[in-house]
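User: I'm putting together a teaching handout on how multi-component assemblies are represented. Below are the sequence lines for each component of a complex, exactly as they appear in our records. Could you produce the 3D structure of the whole assembly as structure tokens, so the students can see both representations side by side? Please keep the chain order the same as the input.
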Amino acid sequence: MLAAPVSTHALPAIVDQVFILFKDWLVSFLPTSWRPAAGVVLGVIAIVCVFPALFALTTVFERKGLGRMQNRYGPNRVGPYGLFQPIADGVKSLTKEDVVPLNADVMVHFLAPLTLVVTVFMGFAVLPMGRNMALVSLDAGLLFFFSMSAATELSVFMAGWSSRNKYSLLGAMRAVAQMISYEVPLLLSSVAVVMISGSLSLPKIVEAQSGYTGVFPHWYIFTPWGLASFLVFAIAATAETNRSPFDLPEGESEIVAGYHTEYSGFKFALFFLAEYLAMFSISGIGVTLFLGGWSAPLSFLNVVPSWFWFFSKVMLSIFVFIWMRGTLPRLRQDQLMNFAWKFVLPFTLLNLGVTALWRFMGEGWARWVVCSVILVGVYVLMGRVGMFKKHFGPRSYRYAE
Amino acid sequence: MSPVFYILAAFTVAGGLAAVLLKNTVHCALALTVAFAGLALLFLNLDAQFVGFAQILIYIGAVAILVVFAILLTRGTETPREGVFSRSWLAGLVIAACVFSALGWAVLESARALPHETAVPSVTVHDIGAALLGRYVLPLEIVALLLTSATIGAVIVAMHEKGSAH
Amino acid sequence: MLGEGILKGMAETAKNFAGSFVSADRLTTVQYPEQRIPTFENARVFPFLVYDGPDWAAGMRCVACQICEKECPPKCIYIEKSRDKKPDFVGKPQFYPARFDIDISVCMSCQICVEVCPFEAIKMDTEFELATDDRFRGLLLDRQQLAKSNEYYHQIHPTEAGEVDARLDAEKAAAAAKAKVAAQAAAKAAETAKTAPAKPAPPAGGED
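Assistant: Of course. Below is the structure of the complete assembly, with chains in the same order as your input.
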């Protein structure tokens, strides 16, 4: 499993592979025929422990960060600096009564959070979280990830439909419509990466970006098409995870809490967990596709273990998610759909063309200029046209002047 | 024919039967999703990763959602009082049996016609892409044309008719 | 250009985020149990009963006239009149409340009881930390719990209490003066009665 540790950096290599070595050591106690299965089980246990722990940390840091953005303290009562807040929240949601509406479809109502969490967890299986640290290295890893994130939509629908609540159903319909609309740009923006790297396997995509020019890395975000794809991917990922400003499915003001209105206690906690896990996994995939995965941002920083870089990049993108949540107001349904189908989708299609152009123009500065000019020109033009037609323009208030 | 196959087959068939026999339309759609998932797992069991994942992505991620949306947007999801079988169930059974036997015959014949391969060929996504854009480029283009016309048709249906709006 | 506004907004929140760690002025939150802001003089929460002197039962100003009970919009006051009388602050014998309960889970802090009280006996408190784990008995305050001294009233509402005291003192002085006049008149009457017993005494009702 250990991929050629560099002899000159013996200690960094060991630290880099520490989890793999630990797993191999644990597995070595078992008979040989059991070892592959045991290794996978250990990997699953690690994922099921690490990401919920990150989720717990993220909830408290999100609340504190949002507070700071609004010039408040945020939670600071439970434990030092409020760090034990997630424990209190967890105890609360575990001990709460599990209320199921009288008319609810009990079976579907029960299954919805379970299938949601399971499909979201599945997405982590292919993420390369460090050098040699993907649980399974699939040839079609990217496709696996997207198929799993597509399967979450049905759980959302099940939750909304089975609650027998108009708000839940409206929320579910909104969520599904939104997720389908934004899945197209999400997939197409990743296709650009697949076109350049020539592989659907995530470790191979990371390797394709692991070179350096001088000290600067060859990440795809540092190319014109890569930056455009990344922006589209970030927008679509925000919509896909129902995060602000795309959190219409759970708009408190108009549809109470959307598809999880009728869930309480532990089932609600599962929805909450699934939302954050989806955020982690989609951040992980964005990091893998555009930000070089586990590779270091500068060539001399490679002594720092690869898993550290992966998790730092994921947490950074989580911070951006939170930052956006603290800044942007919620969109309206028609704005959401117009934006997806009239701006993001055409731009993504154009970007695919630009990526092909980049691929076939060969090395040299010419492709940088041509691709940048096309993308920036079209972006500005589309923005102008959109503003002119007032699809994205500032809102005009008819009565509140 | 491993035990895994039998488990997955039973799972798929159970999903399919539930999709036909359940009374509530949304339950039928969800059961159909179970059948799709079983099919995807069967593909994966045969080491056909690309097809298996594409099955999940397209059938569970899109087709099932479409079915569910169609049910919700057309009529109520209330359970019908009387039986769910239409009066022409006998004709349907006959047609289904005919289709099934034709497909079964084709499958069995293909096993006899092709040289029996013991080793599973390792097909990567790269090979599938090359085959699609090489040998099968014409079918691919025809499908693309069909889908484009369908998309244009959908846009035209969804567009406001001039004058009738407001 | 498209997206400019989003960047501007993000810069604003980033400024807030970083600024809140640097300057304490940005954080306006008062961390309540440890930090407090002084209550305003005009603050009002729930009513209390004022008493004079050291003993709450003896000095209670309330005469159980039950006007506040009748006027209370949510009907949160329960009064039982006493059978005997005790002297009030001017010395006049008055009834007193044998029972005076306010259900603060019902009270809406409207202050109407204070407005209608002719005896300056009920006033608004500023005490707000009344949370209890007994939601029935714990929120029904009896007359002992409601009784607060005039000194406390001066402490929480100094201006208002000063006015009230001035008014009461004036009343007391008037009553004392009246009593003196009445006493002198009585003495005079007694004298004149002694000297001229045939002359009838003036009618008592005219002096009130």
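A couple of points students might notice: Chain A is about 65% helix and 0% strand. Confidence is low (pLDDT under 50) at residues 1-8 of chain A.
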